[in-house]
Write a structure and sequence with these properties.
This protein folds into two domains: about 80 residues, Orthogonal Bundle (Hypothetical Protein Yqey, Chain: A, domain1); about 50 residues, Arc Repressor Mutant, subunit A (Orthogonal Bundle). Helix content is about 75%, strand content about 0%.
Length: about 150
Protein backbone atom coordinates (compact mmCIF):
# COMPACT_ATOMS: atom_id res chain seq x y z
CA UNK A 1 0.00 0.00 0.00
CA UNK A 2 1.46 3.32 -1.01
CA UNK A 3 0.35 6.88 -1.55
CA UNK A 4 0.49 6.59 -5.34
CA UNK A 5 -2.02 3.73 -5.44
CA UNK A 6 -4.37 5.71 -3.19
CA UNK A 7 -4.06 8.71 -5.53
CA UNK A 8 -4.72 6.50 -8.56
CA UNK A 9 -7.84 5.07 -6.87
CA UNK A 10 -8.98 8.60 -6.02
CA UNK A 11 -8.75 9.63 -9.69
CA UNK A 12 -10.73 6.51 -10.60
CA UNK A 13 -13.39 7.36 -8.00
CA UNK A 14 -13.65 10.91 -9.36
CA UNK A 15 -14.06 9.64 -12.92
CA UNK A 16 -16.72 7.13 -11.91
CA UNK A 17 -18.48 9.71 -9.71
CA UNK A 18 -18.20 7.48 -6.62
CA UNK A 19 -18.69 10.13 -3.94
CA UNK A 20 -18.14 7.84 -0.94
CA UNK A 21 -14.79 6.51 -2.21
CA UNK A 22 -13.76 9.98 -3.31
CA UNK A 23 -14.52 11.47 0.12
CA UNK A 24 -12.83 8.67 2.07
CA UNK A 25 -9.69 8.64 -0.08
CA UNK A 26 -9.37 12.42 -0.01
CA UNK A 27 -9.49 12.40 3.79
CA UNK A 28 -6.85 9.67 4.01
CA UNK A 29 -4.57 11.37 1.49
CA UNK A 30 -4.96 14.62 3.42
CA UNK A 31 -3.96 12.87 6.67
CA UNK A 32 -0.95 11.32 4.91
CA UNK A 33 0.07 14.71 3.53
CA UNK A 34 -0.09 16.28 7.01
CA UNK A 35 2.20 13.61 8.46
CA UNK A 36 4.59 13.98 5.51
CA UNK A 37 4.75 17.73 6.12
CA UNK A 38 5.40 17.20 9.84
CA UNK A 39 8.17 14.68 9.18
CA UNK A 40 9.45 16.39 6.04
CA UNK A 41 9.77 13.02 4.34
CA UNK A 42 7.78 10.47 2.35
CA UNK A 43 6.06 7.81 4.41
CA UNK A 44 6.74 4.09 4.32
CA UNK A 45 4.04 1.45 4.02
CA UNK A 46 3.67 0.65 7.78
CA UNK A 47 3.16 4.35 8.54
CA UNK A 48 0.53 4.69 5.82
CA UNK A 49 -1.23 1.59 7.17
CA UNK A 50 -1.19 3.17 10.62
CA UNK A 51 -2.83 6.30 9.22
CA UNK A 52 -5.47 4.18 7.48
CA UNK A 53 -6.18 2.38 10.75
CA UNK A 54 -6.44 5.67 12.60
CA UNK A 55 -8.91 6.95 10.00
CA UNK A 56 -11.05 3.79 10.37
CA UNK A 57 -10.97 4.09 14.16
CA UNK A 58 -11.95 7.76 13.94
CA UNK A 59 -14.94 6.85 11.78
CA UNK A 60 -15.97 4.09 14.21
CA UNK A 61 -16.01 6.71 16.97
CA UNK A 62 -18.08 8.97 14.72
CA UNK A 63 -20.60 6.15 14.28
CA UNK A 64 -20.97 5.76 18.05
CA UNK A 65 -21.54 9.50 18.48
CA UNK A 66 -23.98 9.60 15.56
CA UNK A 67 -25.98 6.71 17.01
CA UNK A 68 -26.28 8.53 20.33
CA UNK A 69 -27.44 11.64 18.49
CA UNK A 70 -29.94 9.65 16.40
CA UNK A 71 -28.23 10.57 13.12
CA UNK A 72 -28.84 7.42 11.07
CA UNK A 73 -27.90 9.25 7.85
CA UNK A 74 -24.43 9.96 9.25
CA UNK A 75 -24.09 6.36 10.49
CA UNK A 76 -24.83 4.99 7.02
CA UNK A 77 -22.40 7.28 5.19
CA UNK A 78 -19.64 6.68 7.74
CA UNK A 79 -20.10 2.90 7.51
CA UNK A 80 -19.73 3.18 3.73
CA UNK A 81 -16.46 5.11 4.19
CA UNK A 82 -15.14 2.45 6.58
CA UNK A 83 -15.90 -0.24 3.99
CA UNK A 84 -13.90 1.72 1.41
CA UNK A 85 -10.91 2.10 3.74
CA UNK A 86 -10.90 -1.52 4.91
CA UNK A 87 -10.13 -2.63 1.36
CA UNK A 88 -6.68 -1.06 1.80
CA UNK A 89 -5.95 -2.67 5.17
CA UNK A 90 -4.42 -6.14 5.49
CA UNK A 91 -6.67 -8.94 6.69
CA UNK A 92 -6.87 -8.96 10.50
CA UNK A 93 -5.18 -11.80 12.33
CA UNK A 94 -7.36 -14.52 13.75
CA UNK A 95 -7.16 -15.35 17.45
CA UNK A 96 -5.09 -18.50 16.81
CA UNK A 97 -2.67 -16.69 14.49
CA UNK A 98 -2.19 -13.91 17.03
CA UNK A 99 -1.59 -16.39 19.85
CA UNK A 100 0.98 -18.20 17.73
CA UNK A 101 2.82 -14.94 16.94
CA UNK A 102 2.78 -13.95 20.62
CA UNK A 103 4.19 -17.33 21.68
CA UNK A 104 6.89 -17.10 19.01
CA UNK A 105 7.84 -13.58 20.18
CA UNK A 106 8.02 -14.77 23.80
CA UNK A 107 10.36 -17.61 22.79
CA UNK A 108 12.38 -15.30 20.54
CA UNK A 109 13.24 -12.86 23.32
CA UNK A 110 13.45 -15.54 26.02
CA UNK A 111 10.79 -13.90 28.15
CA UNK A 112 9.79 -15.70 31.33
CA UNK A 113 8.05 -13.12 33.53
CA UNK A 114 5.69 -10.22 33.07
CA UNK A 115 8.71 -7.91 33.55
CA UNK A 116 9.84 -9.02 30.06
CA UNK A 117 6.60 -7.77 28.52
CA UNK A 118 8.23 -4.68 26.96
CA UNK A 119 10.79 -6.83 25.12
CA UNK A 120 8.06 -9.12 23.81
CA UNK A 121 5.86 -6.24 22.64
CA UNK A 122 8.85 -4.60 20.92
CA UNK A 123 9.47 -7.82 18.95
CA UNK A 124 5.76 -8.47 18.33
CA UNK A 125 4.43 -5.08 17.20
CA UNK A 126 6.16 -4.94 13.79
CA UNK A 127 4.69 -8.36 12.96
CA UNK A 128 1.11 -7.44 13.86
CA UNK A 129 1.13 -3.80 12.73
CA UNK A 130 -2.16 -3.09 11.02
CA UNK A 131 -3.44 -6.61 11.52
CA UNK A 132 -4.28 -6.78 15.23
CA UNK A 133 -5.15 -4.41 18.05
CA UNK A 134 -2.13 -3.69 20.23
CA UNK A 135 -4.30 -3.73 23.35
CA UNK A 136 -5.52 -7.27 22.63
CA UNK A 137 -1.96 -8.41 21.90
CA UNK A 138 -0.75 -6.79 25.11
CA UNK A 139 -3.40 -8.59 27.16
CA UNK A 140 -2.49 -11.88 25.48
CA UNK A 141 1.22 -11.38 26.20
CA UNK A 142 0.45 -10.50 29.82
CA UNK A 143 -1.75 -13.57 30.17
CA UNK A 144 0.83 -15.94 28.68
CA UNK A 145 3.70 -14.52 30.74
CA UNK A 146 1.76 -14.63 34.01
CA UNK A 147 0.50 -18.20 33.52
CA UNK A 148 2.82 -21.01 34.56
CA UNK A 149 5.02 -22.12 31.67
CA UNK A 150 4.46 -25.65 30.36
CA UNK A 151 7.56 -27.44 29.16
Amino acid sequence: MNKESLQKDLKEAIRSKDDVRKRALRMVLSAIKLVEIDRRASLDEPTILGILQREVKSRQETIEEAKQAGRNDLVASTLAEIEVLQVYLPQPLGEDELTELVQRAIEEVGATTSQDMGKVMKALMPQIQGRADGKIASNLVRGLLSSPQKD
